[in-house]
Amino acid sequence: MLRPRLVGVPGDVTWVTPDTAQSRSLLAGEVVEPIPASEPRDVTATLATVGRAHRLLRTRQWSAVVSTGSLAAVPFMALARARGVPCHYIETAARVDDPSLTARILAPIPGVHRYAQHRAATKNGWLFRGSVFDGFRATAVPTAEVRRVVVTAGTGNAGFRRMVDAVRHVLPPEAEVLWQTGPTEVADLGIDARRTLPSGELAAAMAEADLVVAHAGVGSALMALRAGKCPVLLPRRQVFGEHVDDHQRQIADALASAGLAVACEPEALTLEHLSRAAATVVTTTSEPPPFVLESN
Predict the structure, then answer these.
(1) Angle, CA 264 vertex, CA 205 and CA 101 arms, to 5°
(2) What domains appear along the chain, each with residue ranges and CATH number?
(3) How far apart are CA 250 and CA 220, in angstroms?
């Protein structure tokens, strides 16, 4: 979503990302350099990516390296800066108040331009050029039925059973539900769940649904918004081993404050949350503004 808005990089792009069903779906027809899939803070995968970065950066004269974080940013940007290549680190939109570990590692490296996607995070040299959430507007409608529902717990390495249990207890019994549960163990629940879905299939299902309930991951939230849905976001929590920290609570609260989501803890979920989200339509107000990268 940010790529067409970037001002300051050429059109010839090589993408560096793990080879997953989602990346294959989103980057069909693009030039892609695969790197190992990883868990958060995966040292082994990071070291393997150092070798990939070294080999790729030697293949041509690169104009810039741009990243929104996670595994590839540190090895690619550290090596790129050693070669004098301009680097632009755009902090993930999931970080509202505090920087990610990747951002903290990259901050001391000279020549890495840093951008936040929330104005509250623009301090200590961080710049604001916009966000992936630019251009969305939520509007309430009089009434809405909850007949078709998409529930997505993401595709990470940790399960989210609290979410599945909470949603099962409040959904209308007659609702038709598409469950995408990732690694969450659901065999004992008797539900027809799928571990993963191609990005296009999941987006189409959201567009046809009356309601989307999701973990508070940026990708899931964006997919729901682009499908015209105001998602119910249930944040994963560190204390339950569902994520490495509580950044999902930050983004859930931020989107709820902007009127673009309904957010609550799984244990607090009620039918009223579902009804309020279903009775909210999301539209795109206009073309998002350019995301202008620093020129030096």
Answers:
(1) 90
(2) 3-131 (3.40.50.2000), 136-284 (3.40.50.2000)
(3) 15
- pLDDT tens, 46-105? 888 899 999 999 999 999 999 987 778 999 999 999 999 999 999 999 888 888 888 999
Q: What percent of the chain is modeled with pLDDT above 70?
A: 99
The one-character DSSP state at 187 is G
The predicted model scores a pTM of 0.87
Distance CA 144, CA 142 (A): 7
| Chain Cα centroid distance, residue 98 | 16
Phi, psi dihedral angles at 125 (to 5 degrees): 90, 0
Q: pLDDT tens digits for 209-235?
A: 999 999 999 999 999 999 999 999 999
Beta strand segments in the chain, E = 6-7, 14-18, 31-35, 65-67, 87-90, 112-116, 127-128, 136-140, 148-152, 176-180, 193-194, 211-215, 232-234, 262-263, 280-284, 291-292
User: Whole-angstrom Cα distance, residue 245 to residue 235?
Assistant: 11
* Angle 111-117-120 from CA coordinates, rounded to 5°: 100
Cβ-contact 23, 48 below 8 angstroms: no
Place of tokens 């969450």: 184
